[in-house]
């Protein structure tokens, strides 16, 4: 059977915009299409949406997408106004829906959406959904680190909790525009704190509760918060982490450096640590449970302008000094709500689980705001995904009947390495959409996620976006078009990606180069906190007129976008520019390779050569034969020019706390510049560095 929605896809012709021309020129050539089955042919393998899924989807076919996309770039003001009208605005935005200047040669970079509109994102997440009749719907299911420990809050209850904290913050002098640092693990108190700040117009800055005292101090010094919200300790897996000690040291250091925070609101997480044994400073520290519940469960909303700041979030620091990315209210609200709804094909009956921590942008946009704006039921999980065993995720999926599961390639690869039995012993019948974010997902990991986890039934939304972009930029809309494993596919509404060469020339058709974005979108960040100049030089000066993402990308003959990794990581071998993602995917394709990371090192003849760190699958022995067959896998899948010069065994890889491979450190190890490793304290597990050094010549 030929999928009828697909055949209409090929007939549709349109002439608006480069992007549309590109996809038209390619996609239509496709021939035989088997419904719901994969048609294999190298990286052109297309995986078609199941017919029933497509029929019920918000965007049921490519033609509908094209019509909406065309309108979104032809008339952004009209398109986004319509989306915005679904939410509550105390006062409608001004005549001009947006204004922008992305071209530094023409003056300051400036992006504004819904200026003059008066609203509140907390009101739209909670009060509005309650008015729509969802007061008794579960807003948050909370699953604790220990199996069997759980809790939940309805929309009514969540509003009450948020209001109590908001009243407490107000009583303690937190006003509109003040910053508040939130340093909490994945307890319900984390989204509650974010929403409470938003309710009173305070600017939250969530710091991932795995960051060190120095990192926390740096952020305190930068944004000078009125108050720090934290808890005494966390349990992650079997480990207890004394959070309060870290906060104490950050607060005392920062006060010596001129920023004195007078109030530290501390949630007593008694399951991890008793109150009595927590170190305490009477004049500064207050137990959450002693003060917050005494406050009224009603709190008036502080109405704010569409362009008033909502939050600050420091990027993870995979590269250099953290940047305080600033997002404002109106555009971010509309953009996270719309991207969530379309990219996950969200329906009110869904149970949604995103494994990201609220300390990252993914947790902001797609644990808290996007889902709650849509009135969704969100699962918040406190623990680590493989505790007490690698089946935990699927145990949770079955327990709550999770329908949408959104995670990162690093987790997919690690679960794949642990074997299928941990997955297949659970039903997973409830799942209908899967998602991936954070790094390019290797096609082999994609297939495993699709075939084993999703039983070849659930489309995968491989969402490319950044802290800076606020929400999804390039992403599949499940049901609307065929997927290619490892490709983020096509741009979201309103997004105009372009691929440029070194000189900033826009490339057409099949190409590869630097990924930029032309024109603003509502979720774009507006500045780097306190450093607009760094904002302009980092993102808008390399290619004037464009937002430069820092990522490399290629577009295939069918118009699909493929992210190839950060351009800083691109390797140039004898004039061939090779993306790290491509080589790593070829290595991971090898059945004995669990994970791989490649870097470039200097080479006398070739300029650079490829140096690969490889983690074999559990139980596989290191051997020269295995090295040879790994190199062969790259030669046959990419070409001889990309063959790694050296394979370095890696029991583990250095990763950021959000799970991304830190190639900066691997480059130093590969070139044996061991005294120049730099700061390794932000690694999830700094010990892997010593292990790698020890294995350097094996
Ligand atoms: P920093 O900017 O501080 O170095 P970071 O870039 O890792 O940290 P994020 O904003 O969380 O911080 O991550 C965005 C980056 O993650 C993107 O620029 C891209 O390199 C990578 N990325 C995210 N999603 C995808 C995806 N679906 N496919 C490929 N790469 C992705
Ligand atoms: Mg980045």
Characterization of the model:
- This protein is an alpha/beta fold and 698 residues long.
- The protein is 32% helix and 21% strand.
- It has 23 helices and 32 strands.
- The chain has a seven-stranded mixed β-sheet, with helices on both faces. The chain has a five-stranded parallel β-sheet with strand order 9-8-10-13-14, with helices on both faces. Strands 23-24-26-27 form a four-stranded antiparallel β-sheet.
- The N and C termini lie far apart (54 Å).
- 53% of the residues are buried.
- Mean pLDDT is 91; it is low at 1-18 and 21-42.
- The structure holds adenosine-5'-triphosphate (ATP) and magnesium ion.
- Adenosine-5'-triphosphate (ATP) binds next to strand 26 and strand 27.
- Residues 315, 466, 550 line the site of magnesium ion.
Q: Give the beta-strand count.
A: 32
Shape: globular
Strand order of the largest sheet: 7-6-19-18-20-21-22
Hey, roughly how much beta strand do the residues contain?
15-25%
Gyration radius, in Å: 25 Å
**Attached small molecules:** adenosine-5'-triphosphate, magnesium ion
Backbone structural class: alpha/beta
Enzyme class: ligase
Domain AMP-dependent synthetase/ligase: 134-519
Family: Belongs to the ATP-dependent AMP-binding enzyme family.
InterPro entries: Ac_CoA_lig, ACAS_N, AMP-bd_C, AMP-bd_C_sf, AMP-binding_CS, AMP-dep_synth/lig_dom, ANL_N_sf
């Amino acid at each position: 059977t030929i999928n009828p929605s697909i055949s209409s896809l090929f007939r549709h012709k349109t002439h608006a915009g480069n992007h549309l021309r590109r996809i038209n020129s390619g996609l239509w050539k496709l021939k035989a299409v088997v419904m719901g089955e994969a048609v294999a042919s190298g990286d052109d393998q297309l995986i078609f949406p199941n017919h029933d899924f497509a029929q019920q989807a918000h965007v049921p076919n490519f033609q509908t997408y094209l019509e909406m996309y065309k309108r979104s770039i032809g008339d952004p003001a009209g398109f986004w106004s319509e989306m915005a009208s679904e939410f509550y605005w105390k006062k409608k935005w001004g005549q001009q829906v947006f204004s922008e200047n992305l071209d530094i040669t023409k003056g300051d970079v400036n992006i504004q959406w819904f200026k003059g509109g008066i609203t509140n994102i907390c009101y739209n997440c909670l009060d509005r959904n309650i008015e729509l009749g969802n007061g008794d719907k579960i807003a948050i299911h909370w699953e604790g680190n220990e199996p069997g420990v759980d809790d939940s809050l309805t929309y009514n209850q969540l509003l009450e909790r948020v209001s109590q904290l908001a009243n407490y913050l107000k009583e303690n002098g937190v006003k509109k525009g003040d910053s508040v640092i939130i340093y909490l693990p994945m307890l319900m108190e984390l989204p509650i704190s974010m929403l409470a700040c938003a309710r009173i117009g305070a600017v939250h800055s969530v710091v991932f509760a795995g960051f060190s005292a120095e990192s926390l101090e740096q952020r305190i010094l930068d944004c000078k918060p009125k108050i720090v919200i934290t808890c005494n300790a966390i349990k992650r897996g079997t480990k207890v982490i004394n959070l309060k000690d870290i906060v104490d040291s950050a607060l005392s250091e920062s006060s010596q450096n001129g920023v004195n925070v007078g109030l530290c609101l501390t949630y007593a997480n008694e399951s991890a640590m008793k109150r009595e044994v927590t170190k305490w400073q009477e004049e500064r520290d207050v137990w959450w449970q002693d003060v917050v519940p005494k406050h009224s469960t009603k709190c008036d909303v502080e109405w704010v302008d569409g362009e008033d700041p909502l939050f600050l979030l420091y990027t993870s620091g995979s590269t250099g000094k953290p940047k305080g990315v600033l997002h404002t209210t109106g555009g971010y609200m509309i953009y996270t709500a719309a991207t969530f709804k379309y990219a996950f094909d969200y329906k009110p009956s869904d149970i949604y689980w995103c494994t990201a921590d609220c300390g990252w942008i993914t947790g902001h946009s797609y644990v808290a705001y996007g889902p709650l704006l849509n009135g969704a039921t969100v699962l918040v999980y406190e623990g680590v995904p493989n505790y007490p065993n690698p089946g935990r995720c699927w145990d949770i999926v079955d327990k709550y009947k999770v329908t949408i599961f959104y995670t990162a390639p690093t987790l997919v690869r690690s679960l794949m390495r642990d074997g299928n039995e941990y997955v297949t012993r659970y039903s997973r019948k409830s799942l209908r959409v899967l998602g991936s974010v954070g790094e390019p997902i290797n096609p082999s990991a994609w297939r495993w996620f699709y075939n084993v986890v999703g039983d070849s039934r659930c489309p995968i939304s491989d969402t490319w976006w950044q802290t800076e972009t606020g929400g999804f930029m390039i992403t599949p809309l499940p049901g609307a078009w065929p997927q290619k494993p490892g490709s983020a596919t096509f741009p979201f509404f309103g997004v105009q990606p372009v691929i440029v060469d070194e000189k900033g020339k826009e490339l057409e058709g099949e190409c590869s180069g630097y990924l930029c974005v032309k024109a603003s979108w509502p979720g774009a960040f507006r500045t780097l906190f306190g450093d607009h100049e760094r904002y302009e030089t980092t993102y808008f000066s390399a290619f004037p007129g464009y937002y430069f993402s820092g990522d490399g990308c290629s577009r295939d003959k069918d118009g699909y976008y493929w992210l190839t990794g950060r351009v800083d990581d691109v390797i140039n071998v004898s004039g061939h520019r090779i993306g790290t993602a491509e080589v790593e995917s070829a290595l991971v394709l090898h059945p004995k390779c669990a994970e791989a990371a490649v870097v470039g090192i200097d080479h006398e003849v070739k300029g650079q050569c490829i140096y690969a760190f490889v983690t074999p699958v559990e139980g596989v022995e290191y051997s020269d034969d295995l090295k040879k067959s790994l190199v062969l896998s790259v030669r046959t899948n990419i070409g001889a020019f990309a063959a790694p010069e050296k394979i370095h065994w890696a029991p583990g890889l250095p990763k950021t706390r959000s799970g991304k491979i830190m190639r900066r450190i691997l480059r130093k190890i590969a070139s044996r510049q061991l005294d120049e490793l730099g700061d390794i304290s932000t690694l999830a597990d700094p010990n892997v560095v010593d292990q790698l050094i020890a294995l350097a010549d094996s």
